[in-house]
Design brief:
There is one protein chain. With about 100 residues, the protein is an alpha/beta fold. About 45% of the residues lie in helices and about 20% in strands. It has helices at about 15-20, 35-45, 70-80, 85-95, and strands at about 25-30, 50-60, 85. Strands 1-2-3 form a three-stranded parallel sheet, with helices on both faces. Strand 1 (about 25-30), helix 2 and strand 2 (about 50-60) form a beta-alpha-beta unit.
Length: about 100
């Protein structure tokens, strides 16, 4: 739907434009590199005025001997995102919204 991104966030593609053209104001995020790509997209979308939910068990982050990118991202998701939840709860909320 959008052009490829070349940095961690959507700064170099047209994601925000495409979402606005489609009338979308709420975004559910998941993805790999939680402390890089997912977090950067969350921050950019929040700053652009979107409501952003992050699905924690649909993200992954690098964990090394000295760093835990996943744990770091969870802290920031909880501080910044509009909502943070797991897949099961997210799917129930989506189903309820369409009843």
């Amino acid at each position: 739907m959008t052009s490829p991104h070349k940095v961690y966030g959507p700064d170099s593609n047209d994601l925000v434009l495409q979402l606005r053209k489609a009338g979308i104001s709420k975004v559910i995020l998941g993805g790999m590199s939680s402390n890089l790509c997912t977090e950067s997209h969350m921050r950019a979308l929040i700053e652009a005025g979107f409501e952003v939910m992050v699905v924690t068990d649909a993200t992954a982050g690098a964990i090394t001997e000295h760093y835990d990118g996943y744990a770091a991202s969870l802290v920031n998701f909880r501080m910044i995102a509009s909502k943070v939840d797991n897949t099961a709860s997210t799917l129930r909320a989506i189903a309820t919204a369409y009843e």
